[in-house]
Specification:
Length: about 160
């Protein structure tokens, strides 16, 4: 006998997901001299050989459009002293403002900007993109990476930042 299931309401889903502790990253991209970035917690390693990572970006986000157009993105894993950076890239500044103003940035191979002070950096070429719901899952081949594990990660849980003890 087949049972019928009802879809969970967005607010119920959101409340449940607040119970998932996650690290905080900034995903960035650039195209024709224009750069943008956004705070993203939907990031994971997929494979070591070949080196692949996955990010989930809202199709409404400017960063999504840049990743889609350029075919590249960068991921900076934030340290626990970078709350202000996370807030800035989480939309507390207008989409039209330059979120990078006053921040030290660098590049690796693709030209995607990375934020100095992070714990790790992944420079990626889009390998595949999958539209799922209101987001796109971008599977990226890591073509350059750098780690600076001097510090602890910024953690997000239940609408606030947390720190490892």
């Amino acid at each position: 006998m087949k049972s019928e299931y009802r879809r969970v309401a967005a607010d119920v889903m959101r409340e449940g997901m607040r119970q998932w502790a996650t690290g905080v990253t900034i995903v960035t991209s650039l195209d024709e001299g224009w750069k943008h970035g956004m705070t993203v917690s939907s990031f994971t390693s997929i494979s070591l050989d070949p080196p692949l990572v996955l990010v989930s970006l809202s199709r409404q986000a400017r960063t999504h459009a840049l990743v889609e157009k350029s075919g590249v993105f960068g991921v900076t894993i934030l340290n626990d002293q970078q709350e202000m950076v996370s807030d800035r890239f989480a939309g507390r500044m207008s989409e039209d403002e330059d979120r990078f103003v006053g921040l030290e940035i660098f590049t690796l191979i693709t030209g995607a900007p990375f934020l100095a002070g992070g714990l790790a950096f992944f420079d990626c070429r889009v390998e595949a993109a999958y539209e799922v719901g209101d987001h796109t899952l971008f599977l990226g081949e890591v073509i350059a990476s750098r780690a600076e594990p001097n510090g602890k990660p910024l953690i997000y849980y239940n609408r606030s930042y947390q720190r490892l003890q």
